[in-house]
Design a protein that fits this description.
Oligomer: single chain
Number of strands: 19
Shape: globular
CATH class: Alpha Beta
Number of domains: 1
Helix content: 10-25%
CATH architecture: 4-Layer Sandwich
Radius of gyration: 21 Å
Distance between the termini: 52 Å
Length: 324
Amino acid sequence: MCTGIKIDFNDGCVIGRTMDYETPLNYNVLFLPREYNYCKDLTGRKLYSKYKMLGVCFYDRDPLKDGVNEHGLIGITNDFAGFNLYPKNTNPDKINISSRDYFTYALANYRSVKELVSDLPNIRMATNNSMGEKVLSPDFHFMFADSTKRCIVIEPKGGELICYENPYDVMTNSPGFKSHVRRLNQHMDTEKIEDFNSSKELPGGYDPVSRFVKAFYMTRMCIKSYDYKEALSNFYSIMSAMTLPNGFIKNKKYNHTTYTRYICSYDTKHMQLTIKSDTNPMVYSLSLEDIVDENNRQAIFLDFDFMTQELRESKRSKQSPIPD
């Protein structure tokens, strides 16, 4: 139950997401260098990165869930529950890879959305390796953007990977992208969005369809962001309305609660990650330029304890006159 949005600014864009998860979860920030063996494909061939990457992973394991590379290609993965989304068998004429590793593969190999889209026909996600053995291949779909502000969604459908242009700048979960757009148009006229009575008609639920409509409306009605700092401010303001507090949704399947574990964002201009946990209001930031040792994999861990920053009285405030 994750929500992703894109916010544009004058010379770039920000993509970010809520990570809503239904079971206990450990996560951390991960830097992967060039020429790093981040996985094997489904034929057993080792894959190495062409580009540096920075993102968030689970349990300090290499597959990234969201991230940015050194050329400013940014994106996220979201759960996309379905049935028979991927073919079982590999194809010797294509690059065969698990859906778990595809996002990392994309950041490792492409400089732009254009490159990614042009190579998509050569990619095959399968549930079995070339030996016929079943592999971990989660039901995922993906959203990417770059410095041109072009945004796409990639979804598995009928054993193929389908690319959708995404002028709506939003991705949630199942159903498919076209279904979300159809239901969005049932809620409002997207060409006359100012006429929509949001205080009465905006969906209040947290199902994927309601979140898609809500996130679209808030991103469209948000004030213009002129630089990346304003974009980040607007991003976190919108995401504060999309988060799930712990205990809000009881997950009967796992006997846990589904809630937002972290919120993170990436910008195309500075190749910077910002991230905030559910337990600590502090927003941490790290860019690829901040990495000193660029030749080795590095795991960076957040402080999850609740933190505040001391508010200090400045000299200027002491000298300010009291208004009448």
